[in-house]
Design a protein that fits this description.
Elements (H helix, E strand, L loop, with lengths): L3 H4 L12 H20 L3 H12 L2 H7 L4 H14 L4 E6 L10 H9 L2 E4 L5 H4 L7 E4 L11 H13 L3 E6 L9 H11 L2 E5 L4 H9 L11 E6 L11 H4 L4 E6 L5 H10 L7 E6 L7 E6 H11 L5 E5 L1 H12 L1
Parallel strand pairs: 1-4, 1-5, 2-3, 2-4, 6-7
Antiparallel strand pairs: 7-10, 8-9, 8-10
Helix pairs in contact: 2-3, 2-5, 3-5, 4-5, 8-9
Bound molecules: S-adenosylmethionine (SAM).
S-adenosylmethionine binds next to helix 10 and strand 10.
Protein name: uroporphyrinogen-III C-methyltransferase
Family: Belongs to the precorrin methyltransferase family.
Keywords: Methyltransferase, Porphyrin biosynthesis, S-adenosyl-L-methionine, Transferase
Length: 327
């Protein structure tokens, strides 16, 4: 990844310790800086146009030692196309910094503002551009989430101000992340929006516990379900969830585990079906409670601390346990 600040600063000087690319890029940046200052009023717009110029074909030409003039013309074109704001809905993964995608890392390094959730890991946030504004929307005063409508309005407004907005969400934006609503809000407002997938909790928990979500003999279907209630009720198709030969991954279910178990058992799933509750999966602080659907649900209230947790139910959970005992 070549990124503007890695080899030049805004004055056009090569950054300390950079090699030939920076030295050759410096005259280009000098010329670019003068023209950009004349054409663009704000520092943010100038930085963006510099990024566009110095991370694209212009930088390639400069680093290749080709005429800076040709590169500069290209830089101007690039700058003109990138002056409007954009929203990137970025999946931050389960919390572990090294489970971030390379694309997410690049966008964080280019962000003007990062709007982030409660589940985004500290280490991930530290990867944002040093000067980027950070806006926390996970919990506000009195421990209430910022309403979704306000978050939608916020990211649209920031993009309309010409900013590059990274809307950072735990896991994947499109898995119980309300990313769909934010994408719709951007589209309705005519704001460009890109979605960058992240490692969702079910994948991280499965990998970190050795519980495969699918298995040739034990699970030919995997279902992601939410344990979140509306009007105090679980709106789940228990008959479908109780079918054999599948793995169930339940998000946001810690407080409704008993109701979930009762619904599944009433629909025919044996209470002795293997299960695991994974707290802070995929991070250094991961904890796992293994057992059956019944035993896990019974022990969870005492066992669970306050971290995000995911319930995995299905024969695949027994496989991991058998392997663990054998080891
Ligand atoms: C609002 S949902 C967000 C899901 C997220 N978009 C994703 O793709 O993982 C929050 C729920 O995700 C689950 N979750 C998120 N991170 C987790 C982690 N590291 N370990 C276990 N569960 C996690 C928990 O069930 C939590 O209540």
């Amino acid at each position: 990844m070549r990124h503007f600040p890695a080899f030049l600063d805004l004055t056009g000087r090569a950054a300390p310790g950079v090699g030939e690319g920076g030295t050759r890029g410096a005259p280009l940046a000098d010329r670019f800086k003068a023209a950009a200052r004349a054409a663009l009023p704000g520092l943010a717009a100038r930085r963006r146009s510099a990024d566009a110029a110095l991370t694209g074909p212009a930088a390639d030409l400069a680093i290749a030692g080709r005429a800076a003039g040709a590169a500069f013309a290209d830089a101007r074109r690039g700058a003109e196309t990138r002056l409007t704001g954009v929203v990137h809905l970025v999946g931050a993964g389960p919390g572990a910094t090294d489970l971030l995608t390379l694309r997410a890392l690049r966008l964080l390094g280019e962000a003007d503002v990062v709007v982030y959730d409660r589940l985004v890991g500290e280490g991930v946030l530290d990867l944002a551009r040093r000067g980027a504004e950070r806006v926390f929307v996970g919990k506000a005063r009195a421990n209430h989430c910022v309403p979704q409508g306000e978050i939608n309005a916020l990211i649209v407004r920031l993009a309309r101000e010409g900013k590059r907005v990274v809307r950072l969400k735990g896991g994947d934006p499109f898995v119980f992340g309300r990313g769909g609503e934010e994408l719709e809000a951007c589209r309705a407002a005519g704001v460009a929006c890109e979605v960058v997938p992240g490692v969702t909790a079910a994948l991280a928990c499965a990998a970190a516990t050795g519980i495969p979500l699918t298995h040739r003999d034990r699970a030919r279907t995997v279902t992601f379900a939410t344990g979140h209630t509306r009007d105090g009720r679980l709106y789940l198709d228990f008959a479908a969830l109780a079918r054999p030969g599948q793995t169930l991954a339940v998000y946001m279910g810690v407080t409704t585990l008993a109701a979930l178990r009762d619904g599944l058992v009433a629909a025919g799933l044996p209470a002795g079906t293997p299960a695991a509750l994974v707290e802070r999966g995929g991070t250094d602080a991961q904890r796992v409670l293994r057992g059956t659907l019944n035993s896990v649900v019974a022990r969870a209230p005492v066992w669970h601390t306050c971290g995000p947790a995911l319930l995995l139910v299905g024969d695949v959970a027994a496989q991991a346990e058998e392997e663990r005992l054998a080891a």
